[in-house]
Amino acid sequence: MFNSSTILRQIILLCVIQEPTSGLDSSTSLKLVRQLKDFAVTFNKTILVTIHQPSSQTYHLFDTLLLLTRGEVSI
Description:
It is a single chain. By secondary structure, this protein is α+β, with helices and mostly antiparallel strands. Helix content is 40%, strand content 21%. It has three helices and four strands. The strands form two sheets. It has a two-stranded parallel ribbon with strand order 1-2. Strands 3-4 form a two-stranded antiparallel sheet. The model has no long low-confidence stretch (mean pLDDT 85).
């Protein structure tokens, strides 16, 4: 018998999630992003996330950031 979560961890190379914190309060958003980070670290996966207006705590959980302003990459 195969464990589906084991199979998915082996198959997924890159996970793209659009606005996972949309509609969540700041506490729940932070918990969700921490869980995504833990998953990425534990299973050595890359997770690409789009988030509007992250809290400073959430912002600091990301390893790499690409910031956009008016459709342009910000420095």
